[in-house]
Amino acid sequence: MLGCKPPLGEISLEHFMRAHWQRRPLLVRNAFPGFRSPVPPQRLFDLAVQDDVESRLVSSARGRWALRHGPFEAGELPLPARRDWTLLVQGVDLHLDEIHSLLGRFRFVADARLDDLMISYAVDGGGVGAHVDSYDVFLLQAHGSRRWRIGWPRSSELLADVPMKILARFEPTEEYVLEAGDMLYLPPGWAHEGTALGECMTFSVGFRAPSRHELLGAWFAECADSPPSGPDPRYSDRGTGPTRTPGRLPEPMHAVLAKWLLEWRPAPQEIARFMGRFLTEPKPNVWFQAPRRRTSPAGFSARALRSGLRVDRRSRLAYRRRDFFINGEHVPMTGKSAPLLRRLADERSLPPDALRGTSVDPELIACLRGWFDAGWIRFGPP
Ligand code: SIN
Ligand code: CO
To answer: Whose CA is nearest to atom 1 of ligand 1?
Structure first.
C-alpha cells in the first residue's frame, strides 16, 4: 500500500502538497487511467440495506429537496429510470477490501487525517446541491459523467426549510465535467455542486481534521469518565462566619474553584496517550469480527511466521515514539518490538520474513495475538 503512486497525473507530490493541499482546488484529468469502478451499483444498493452501513438518499424532484437516512428496505430505492436522486453510502472502505485498497494511493497524507471513502450513485440530474464541506476531499469520477461547479463562497447563508445544508447563493467560478478516472481535489471551505449527467458514480476520499471544540469535548468527556489520577480535594469553608447575603456566590468559594480550573495542567504523557486513543477511535458503527477459532500462542506464532500479518481494513493503527495506538487503545512497547510494529502501522502488513527471529520476543507475540483475537489484525498475505 505504501509507496503506491499518488494519483496526481503529471503534478509532483511535492508541488501538490505545497501549492494545493489545504489551499487551492486541483483538477487531475485521467488521475486513474482506464478506471473502472470495482463496485457495481447493485453492490452499493446491497450495502445501503445493511444496518451497519451509513447511507442517505437525496432527491430534488420539481425543486423540492428531500433527504432520507438508511438502512433502506430491499426495493425501497427509486428506480434508475426516475430523475434527480442520489444514494450516498459512507465508509465503503470499511466494508469492501477492493475499495479500502484504493486508499493506499492517498497515503501520502497521514492515516490520522483520513476519514473514509464515500460512494455516491446518481441518476441523471442527481446531486446534493451547492454546499461547503469542512474536510479536504478528492472527488474521483468512478463511472459516467458528472458536472462540478465550484467557487469560493461569498456568503454562508443556507436555504431555509431544506433538510440539508444547501447554500442560498452560490456563484461558481469554475466548471468541469469529470469522466471516469478524472479527479477533483477540493480543500475545506470551497463551495461545490455536482450534477450527474446521466447515471454516474463518484468516489469521495474525505480527510478529517478535528476542531478544537471537538478535541476539547472528547478530552473533557474522558476526564469526567476516568477516576482522578491524583488526590481529589473537595472545597471546604471551615472557619467561615455566618452570611447575611445567602444568594451571593461566596467569593472565597469562587476563588478556590477558579484556581483549580486555572491551574489544571494535564501531564504531557496523559495528553499523548489521550491524543493517540482519540485519533485512532473507530467510527461508532464499526464492529470487528474475532476469528472463529482461537489459536494457542504456539499456533499463532507458527501461522504468523508462515503467512505474515496484515491489519484489518477497519483498524486504525498509529504510533508516536514508543507508544502504539490501535482502535482507541494505547499499547506501550519496549525496545526491540517497536520498529516492527512501526513497520506494521506504516505498511499495514508484515511479511513472514519480517517476523522471523521475533518468535522469541514474548511481549510482541502476546501483543499481536491479542490484536488478532480482537479481529484487529489477520494472517497475511497483504
Ligand atoms: C456526491 O458525491 O454527490 C457529493 C459529494 C460531495 O459533494 O462532497
Ligand atoms: Co461535498
So the answer is: 120
Which residue among 39, 178, 202, 205 has the greatest number of ligand 1 atoms within 8 angstroms of its CB, and so is best to mutate?
202
Question: What is the residue extent of each domain of the chain?
Answer: 13-207, 211-224+266-382
> Which residue type, as a one-letter code, is found at position 16?
F
Cα(194) to centroid(ligand 1), Å: 7
Which atom, in ligand 1's list, is nearest to the CA of 192?
7
Hey, how many other C-beta atoms are within 10 angstroms of the C-beta on 183? Answer: 24
pLDDT of amino acid 74: 83
> Relative to the CA of 86, which ligand 1 atom is closest?
3
pLDDT of residue 295: 87
pLDDT at 3: 62
Cell numbers placing 126: 442527481
Mean pLDDT (10-residue bins), the chain, 382 residues: 83 98 98 97 96 96 92 88 93 97 97 98 97 97 98 96 96 98 98 98 98 97 87 95 97 97 93 97 94 89 93 98 96 86 96 78 90 96 68
Q: What is the pLDDT of residue 10?
A: 95
Ligand nearest to the CA of 190: 2
Q: Which fold has domain 211-224+266-382?
A: Malonyl-Coenzyme A Acyl Carrier Protein; domain 2 (3.40.366)
From CA 49, how far away is CA 358, in angstroms rounded? 44
- CATH T-level fold of 13-207: Jelly Rolls (2.60.120)
Q: Could you tell me the distance, in angstroms and rounded to a whole number, from the CA of residue 184 to the centre of ligand 1?
A: 11
